[in-house]
């Protein structure tokens, strides 16, 4: 049984779990399941990778399990269930649900001449990133705007009108010129703040999950981020002034890339009327779900993700230009997709 990691249905959706051995697996460990004489009862796995192992026969469909355990799949949001469904068969049950929104450190933006909403305006992004960036000596002391690449390339793609993978999960669209434009736009934010190595080194110094997080320390003015980071801020930095805004496409319409339901994550935050900043941010996240999209399940989901992430890394390191890197990624991804047919 595979339980899709980083995903979720609705509150209390741990239905049908056996009280046996559970295992959270990294990608290389999954193929060993087939060779094991004592496989775990439960596997936690990134949904974007699930299709690869389902296609290889490493995972079995949950058709019988769902029926015998009387699991009501209607309790899961359709977007979450779609990601764990390949060729009409369900191979995993979603656990968490992440939305991607823009989080703004209001204290850092104050006095800059920009508003949180300005940071969703594509025409103002590079200028805002450069102005909000702070350098001390030869290094960074504050990142103006983090485009969150390579991780969030699918969000940038969708905002530029590109669906990176066909609905059936079998045809890559990585060589679409609009995707190269989107990647160039995201990279321009990095370039406006310094070279990638300096930005990455500074990011790696952040205490993302503690009391000295980047928002409280003033190390980050704005970033695209998973919605669970609001929980971190509310728990460790409740007095931080933070705003949330949806990412937008070239026409200004909101775009949200999700992996499944925010109800469980935000079950306590939505009651915090005494913290209006967080209350407003949570409501923004919930509203963003109305414009959400998911990445299709694919029999070569793992290889597809590796291809586009490697392409972005080559661009960030200066090894290739966006169009060249994505053409190479297209060939690599489509070769894997064709082999999985």
Biggest pleated-sheet summary: 3 strands, parallel
Strand ordering within the main sheet? 1-3-2
Distance between the first and last residues' Cα: 23 Å
- Principal-axis shape equals globular
The helix content is 25-40%
Unreliably modeled segments: 1-28, 260-270
DSSP summary: helix tally? 13
The counted number of beta strands is: 13
Cα Rg? 20 Å
List keywords for this structure.
alpha/beta, disordered N terminus, three-stranded parallel beta sheet, three-stranded antiparallel beta sheet
Task: Itemize the secondary structure elements and their pairings.
Elements: E1 2-5, E2 22-24, H1 32-35, E3 42-46, H2 47-55, H3 63-68, H4 78-83, E4 85-86, E5 89-90, E6 100-105, H5 106-109, H6 125-132, E7 134-136, E8 139-142, H7 153-159, H8 177-191, H9 196-204, E9 222-226, H10 229-236, E10 242-245, E11 247-248, E12 254-257, H11 276-288, E13 292-293, H12 301-316, H13 322-339
Parallel strand pairs: 1-3, 2-3, 12-13
Antiparallel strand pairs: 4-5, 6-9, 6-10, 7-8, 11-12
Helix pairs in contact: 2-12, 6-8, 7-8, 12-13
In short:
One of its GO terms (biological process) is maltodextrin transmembrane transport. With 341 residues, this protein is α/β, with parallel strands linked by helices. It has helices spanning 32-35, 47-55, 63-68, 78-83, 106-109, 125-132, 153-159, 177-191, 196-204, 229-236, 276-288, 301-316, 322-339; strands spanning 2-5, 22-24, 42-46, 85-86, 89-90, 100-105, 134-136, 139-142, 222-226, 242-245, 247-248, 254-257, 292-293.
């Amino acid at each position: 049984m595979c339980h899709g990691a980083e995903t979720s249905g609705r509150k209390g959706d741990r239905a049908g779990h056996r009280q046996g051995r559970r295992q959270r697996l990294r990608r290389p460990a999954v193929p060993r399941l087939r060779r094991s004489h004592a496989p775990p009862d439960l596997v936690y796995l990134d949904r974007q990778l699930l299709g690869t192992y389902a296609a290889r026969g490493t995972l079995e469909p949950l058709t019988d399990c769902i029926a015998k355990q009387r699991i009501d799949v209607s309790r899961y949001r359709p977007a979450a269930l779609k990601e764990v469904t390949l060729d009409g068969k369900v191979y995993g049950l979603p656990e968490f649900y992440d939305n991607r929104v823009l989080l703004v450190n209001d204290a850092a933006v104050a006095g800059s001449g920009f508003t949180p909403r300005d940071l969703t305006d594509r025409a103002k992004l590079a200028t805002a990133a450069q102005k909000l960036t702070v350098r001390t000596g030869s290094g960074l002391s504050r990142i103006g705007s983090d485009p969150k690449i390579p991780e969030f390339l699918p969000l940038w793609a969708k905002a530029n009108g590109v669906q990176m993978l066909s609905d059936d999960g079998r045809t890559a669209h990585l060589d679409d010129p609009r995707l190269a434009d989107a990647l160039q736009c995201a990279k321009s934010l990095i370039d406006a703040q310094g070279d990638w190595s300096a930005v990455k080194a500074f990011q790696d110094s952040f205490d993302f999950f503690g009391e000295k997080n980047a928002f409280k320390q003033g190390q980050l003015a704005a970033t695209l981020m998973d919605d669970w980071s609001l929980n971190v801020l509310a728990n460790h930095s409740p007095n931080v002034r933070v705003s949330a805004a949806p990412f937008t496409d070239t026409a200004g319409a909101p775009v949200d890339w999700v992996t499944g339901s925010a109800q469980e994550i935000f079950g306590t935050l939505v009651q915090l009327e005494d913290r209006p900043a967080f209350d407003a941010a949570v409501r923004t996240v919930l509203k963003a779900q109305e414009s959400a999209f998911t990445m299709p399940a694919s029999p070569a989901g793992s290889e597809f993700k590796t291809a586009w992430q490697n392409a972005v890394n080559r661009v960030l390191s200066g090894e290739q230009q966006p169009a060249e890197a994505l053409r190479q990624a297209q060939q690599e991804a489509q070769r894997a997709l064709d082999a999985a047919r």
